[in-house]
Structure formats: structure tokens, C-alpha cells
Design a protein that fits this description.
Helix content: 25-40%
Radius of gyration: 23 Å
Largest sheet: 12 strands, mixed
Shape: globular
Strand content: 15-25%
Distance between the termini: 13 Å
Number of strands: 25
């Protein structure tokens, strides 16, 4: 059996100019990065053909992830290829992979088997340099903050109250807490500092939510980097940093165009890590997909309690998007894992364990229908070890709720393996959605946090650490008290405790820290033990990745 990378390396995609031309994107709006990928200028949005009917937006999400993996990106890609086989004009809008999980444990985000976007290796590694640009802009601002203090500190920035962190796109726990500026007077002001992974940075969120260069620069200027000795917020524009940051980011704001193994166009741009960030690809990628396709498929990170909630409550609110339906991806082995089966025993039939794990899937599907008002289908990503009895148990649990379930075999068969799912999605698109947020725009911070915790997670309530209580009062006094909330939480559970699997009840969500991401336009809420800089596992994936003398990469999944 071929590995994902071997399948991708044997593929012969169309020249990317041809993919763009088939969409109707003119050569003037295309910036080529070789023959197989390109950036599409923002001007292409104004040049898009006028449509008689607006395109549909399909949101693909999933149950809570497990170490076994669910195949959400694979399913999204295969669904797009299946829709193309049915004569539709689907366009994908996917998130870019981060180097952290690529070299860590989770892997990349280019799909798998015969449902991938290519060039797989480049997408999973440096791609077009978007993340490097974000890291450079982030760290330029950090350097300007410390230089301002070193050069006399005219703004009166309190080094003890600097909230802006440096970033790097790698899992590096050693950098979570550091002391820098050591060495003497010429080397800066010693202070406590720290790093976030690039995908969790505010710049990443700003980029994903910006709709133009003017919007980007304005958002960059709004960033709060810390506070003065008088406890007043200090913004990036007071350091005159937004212009240079925008200069570093201007090319990265244009989305990247690639294709699936079957030639379906895909915009892959920004935004992973829905557990510690908002976890959505860029709005401009969504706009491009909606402008040039009749069905746009976008994927939100991790479980529906994280990525789908943030897509609906943050991205759709900011970008005035209205999804038409939702797909919730599940696997038999993930259901059994949620039912208490260890990872090494997931291939053995176990209907009873599966039934114990089913409430996790049911809750996610119900949330999409009842909380967000979206017609929903469950895509069961089938594996060879799955039994007919196990699959029947899933179907029986969903039928009384009026939720369809379709088997998906796109990993093995590409678009052909997703035709039933594609037909189900087309059926849902004939229905009228009643899309809604989980809380209204302008809701006070605590009420918004409570709404997500009780309506989406089904928590009993929210407990605030004293530090978080003080931070919320401060943000309210500074005028940030009615921003949307971006809740950072473990991806493995509806609760903030990763060990509480399936669909726990009678639990509280504990908020330990709150921070404003003023440029992104939301308040970041950290719960439980979640951190914004992951670490590598005992045996990281990097140990198996190699590059031979001809430049051929191996071991990349």
C-alpha cells in the first residue's frame, strides 16, 4: 500500500495556470510560485464573474479528535472531488498546515490517500512562506517594543505588563517562558518573556480576518502590546509599527491556489489550531471560493465545539458569511475511543464501546442543527476494520434525530468514494438554513463565554480564576467588554479536561486567563491547562522525515 506522500508524488496535476483559467481567474490576477501553485491577487475578487445565484457555503467539521485521527481534511477534499464528478463547480477553502504538528505528532493538513491537495510536501512544509511572513511581522513588533523601552521609553511602557509575545512556527516548550535582554546595558532591558507558536499569534488571526490591505493595516495598528505604568493600553500604532508590518505581510494576504489529485481547485490559506486560536482559513480564501465556484467547501479545525463554533461566531460574524449546511466527520474508531477503548485496540470490533462513545457525535450533530441552525449530515469515514454491525449502530443513533449519515471512502477511492456524501450535501443545500450565532453581537464577555460553555459544550457553568476576573473588569473598562470570544480549550473533550471523553455532564469550565486581541477583534479566553506553545512528543514525526540526494522527501506521512 502506498503512503500518502508516495501517492502525492506519483500525481501529475495540471499546470496551475490552467486550474486558474478553468475557474475564470485571469493571468493578471495570478502570481506564480513555480508550475503547481500560485497566489491570487485580491483584485481577483473584483474581477469575478457576476452570478445569477449566490454560491453555497458548506462547513465541514468533526467530532472531538482522538489520537487515531478522523480524516476531516481528507473528507472535505474527497467531497469536493465527488461534487465535481456530479457536474458541480466546487472550490475548496482549506487551512495551511503548521510545521509544529508536521514535525510533532498530529501530522500535516493536506488530506490523505486519494483525497489530497498537491504539491503535498510543499504545502506541508514552507509552501509560499505565509507563516514565515507572519512570524517576521510578529517579531518585528516585539523588537520595536523592546527597542522603544531601551531608547528612553517615551510611552512609559511597563516591562512587567508587556502582553505581546514572540512567536515561532514550531513545537518548542523550551520557549514558553524565557528571560531575555540579559548581558548588560547595551543588550536591552532584562524582562520575563515568552513565545507562542505562530499559528496561535494574533497576527495569524488578523491575517485570516482581514479583507483588504487597508483593513489589515488598520487591524495591525489596533494591536495592544501591553500597558503603561499608569495602566493605559499601548497600541502598535503608537510605536508606528503597523506600516512596516503590513509591508512584510502584503503578499501573504493573497490566498494560495493549488489543486486536488483530481484537479479540483483549492485555496489553502492560513489559520490552523482551533484549540488555541480561531482555527479557520482566511476570509479572502472563502470569498474567492464563493466568487469562483457554485459550492465553496471550508473546513474548521478540531471538533465542532472548537473550529465550527469559532467559524460561526467569529469568522462568519466578521466576514458576513452564512453557511448553507454542515458536514460532521466521524469514524468508528474515534467513537470506540470515546467509549473507553485504548488506541491499540481500536481495530477490534466493539459495539458496546462504540455505543458509549456515540453521545459525543450526537451532541456535535445536534449543536450544528439546534445551536447554529444548519442542516447537517454525518460523514462516516470508513476504515477496513469497521464492521457492518458497528456502522448500523451509528445510523440507528442518528435516525431518530432526523440526521442523515453517509459512509465515505474517499481515502481509498477519491471522489468516487464520496458520491453518496455529495448527494446528501446537495439534498441539504435544497433546504433553507436558519443560521445563527451561539450568542448575539454585543453580548458582554461573561455572558458570551457562558453561552458557548453552556449551549455548545453543555457545561453546568463557568468558574473564573481571580486573575481572569480582574482581567475581564479591566477589558470592560477599556471598551473591550462586548467583543466576540475565542475560547482556547482542549480539543479532546467538550470540557476543559482532556480525560472527560464522550459527552460529559455536570462539569464547569474554568477560565484562568483572558487577553484582548484587539486587532483580531476578539477576546482570547484560556481555559483549563491549555497552552499557546505546544511541545514535541517523545518520538516526534521529525525522526522519520528524510530528504535524499535528489531532494526527494520521505517519511512525511
Amino acid at each position: 500500500m502506498l503512503s500518502d506522500i508516495e501517492i502525492a508524488q506519483k500525481a501529475h496535476g495540471k499546470p496551475i495556470q490552467d486550474v486558474a483559467a478553468e475557474l475564470g481567474i485571469s493571468p493578471e490576477d495570478l502570481v506564480l510560485y513555480g508550475t503547481d501553485k500560485a497566489k491570487v491577487r485580491l483584485s481577483a475578487l473584483a474581477h469575478a464573474p457576476k452570478k445569477e445565484h449566490p454560491a453555497h457555503l458548506v462547513l465541514v467539521t468533526a467530532m472531538n479528535p482522538t489520537p487515531a485521527g478522523e480524516g476531516k481534511t481528507t473528507t472535505t477534499i474527497g467531497l469536493a472531488d465527488a461534487l465535481a464528478k456530479l457536474g458541480k463547480n466546487p472550490v475548496l477553502a482549506l487551512r495551511e498546515p503548521s510545521l509544529g504538528p508536521v514535525f510533532g505528532v498530529k501530522g500535516g493538513a493536506a488530506g490523505g490517500g486519494y483525497a489530497q491537495v498537491i504539491p503535498m510536501e510543499e504545502i506541508n512544509l514552507h509552501f509560499t512562506g505565509d507563516f514565515h511572513a507572519i512570524g517576521a511581522a510578529n517579531n518585528l513588533l516585539a523588537a520595536m517594543v523592546d527597542n522603544h523601552i531601551k531608547q528612553g521609553n517615551e510611552l512609559g511602557i511597563d516591562p512587567r505588563q508587556i502582553t505581546w509575545k514572540r512567536c515561532v512556527d514550531m513545537n518548542d516548550r523550551q520557549l514558553r517562558h524565557v528571560v531575555d535582554g540579559l548581558g548588560g546595558v547595551v543588550d536591552g532591558m532584562p524582562r520575563e518573556d515568552g513565545f507562542e507558536i505562530t499559528v496561535a499569534s494574533e497576527i495569524m488571526a488578523i491575517m485570516a480576518l482581514s479583507t483588504s490591505l487597508a483593513d489589515l493595516k488598520e487591524r495591525l495598528g489596533r494591536i495592544v502590546i501591553g500597558y503603561t505604568f499608569d495602566k493605559a493600553p499601548v497600541r502598535a500604532r503608537e510605536l508606528h509599527a503597523e506600516g512596516a508590518m503590513c509591508a512584510l505581510l502584503k503578499d501573504a494576504l493573497s490566498p494560495n491556489l493549488v489543486q486536488t489529485l483530481e484537479g479540483t481547485p483549492a485555496f489553502v490559506h492560513l489559520g490552523p489550531f482551533a484549540n488555541i486560536a480561531h482555527g479557520c482559513n482566511s476570509l479572502v480564501a472563502d470569498y474567492m471560493a464563493l466568487s469562483y465556484g457554485d459550492i465553496a467547501l471550508t473546513e474548521a479545525g478540531f471538533g465542532a465545539d472548537l473550529g465550527a463554533e469559532k467559524f460561526c461566531d467569529i469568522a462568519c460574524r466578521a466576514g458576513n458569511l452564512k453557511p448553507s449546511c454542515a458536514v460532521v466527520v466521524a469514524t468508528i474508531r474515534s467513537l470506540k475511543y470515546n467509549g473507553g477503548v485504548s488506541k491499540d485496540a481500536l481495530s477490534s470490533p466493539n459495539v458496546e464501546a462504540l455505543k458509549r462513545g456515540l453521545p459525543n457525535l450526537v451532541r456535535h450533530a445536534q449543536n450544528m442543527v439546534e445551536v447554529f441552525g444548519l442542516p447537517t449530515v454525518v460523514a462516516l469515514n470508513r476504515f477496513s476494520a469497521d464492521t457492518d454491525e458497528e456502522i448500523a449502530a451509528v445510523r440507528e443513533a442518528l435516525e431518530p434525530l432526523g440526521i442523515m449519515m453517509c459512509e465515505s471512502n474517499v481515502w481509498e477511492k477519491g471522489g468516487e468514494g464520496g458520491l453518496d456524501l455529495a448527494q446528501a450535501v446537495l439534498h441539504l443545500l435544497s433546504k433553507k438554513p436558519h443560521f445563527s450565532f451561539s450568542y448575539a453581537t454585543g453580548t458582554p464577555l461573561k455572558a458570551a463565554i457562558s453561552a458557548v460553555a453552556t449551549r455548545v459544550y453543555r457545561a453546568r457553568g463557568v468558574v473564573y480564576a481571580p486573575k481572569a476576573e480582574a482581567q475581564i473588569k479591566r477589558l470592560e473598562a477599556e471598551g473591550f467588554g462586548e467583543l466576540p470570544v475565542c475560547i482556547a480549550k482542549t480539543q479532546y473533550s467538550f470540557s476543559d479536561d482532556a480525560s472527560k471523553l464522550a459527552a460529559p455532564r455536570d462539569f464547569d469550565i474554568t477560565v484562568r486567563e483572558v487577553k484582548v486581541d484587539a486587532g483580531a477583534g476578539f477576546v482570547r479566553v484560556l481555559t483549563g491547562a491549555i497552552m499557546t506553545m505546544p511541545g514535541l512528543p517523545k518520538h516526534p514525526a521529525a525522526e522519520k522525515i528524510d530528504c535524499d540526494g535528489e531532494g526527494v522527501i520521505s517519511g512525511l506521512f
